[in-house]
Hints:
- By secondary structure, the protein is of the alpha/beta class.
- It is 45% helix and 10% strand.
Amino acid sequence: MTAETEYQYQAVLLDIEGTIAPVAFVYDTLFPFAHEHVARYVAEHFDDVDVQKDIEDLRHLAYDERAAGHTDVPEIPELVPPVTRGGVQKAVRECVHALMARDSKATALKSLQGKIWREGYERGQIVGELYDDAIRALARWDANGVKIGIYSSGSVEAQQLLIGHSNEGDLRPFVSHWFDTTTGPKRERKSYETIADEMELTPSDILFATDIVAEALAAKAAGLQVVIMERLGNEKQPPHPFPIEEDFEMV
């Protein structure tokens, strides 16, 4: 892209993993941290109202998964005799591990993961890793009046934690809109139409940057502009008609 194309959109909508943050950060840092700490976290916060909500949502999710034939996802029993607190906590841990093994994008899973990560960020055990060019681009877009939105399968809380505890400090002030799977699946056109409405823009005035062609196709169908990011370590994508960039320097 040339400098002249910089202002051919009024907003950018950014994926995180493989777009503004390395895939390796998610899979080598965040996921292992949640996997390792879920048992302790659930035990320590078992009576928290929001954690109980996550457990209930995971219970329903596990039921649906098993009904669909995914018997690898353990049931989570209700806390009624003879079931003990420890029994429920063990089932939650096993359910989370099973869902993570399948790289589930389920909102219930992402919500609990986000809480575990929050504690890790706040304790300084995790620092969000963003690409240098993405950090520069956020500042450039903000300085030029371009709205910035984030749309990731990770929960809004997880997004804000990563960007708020980044390797360059708190970058949340650059971002005006946050979207996760509660808005809708990332591979469905309707999700991007909803996002455009919430950003109060015509879809064609938004540039969506992602590393996944299936997401790009859904965004394009909704009328958004699209660019595919090809970062080192990203999964190889099928042939597509979209412009490709290795960084945000000319986006």
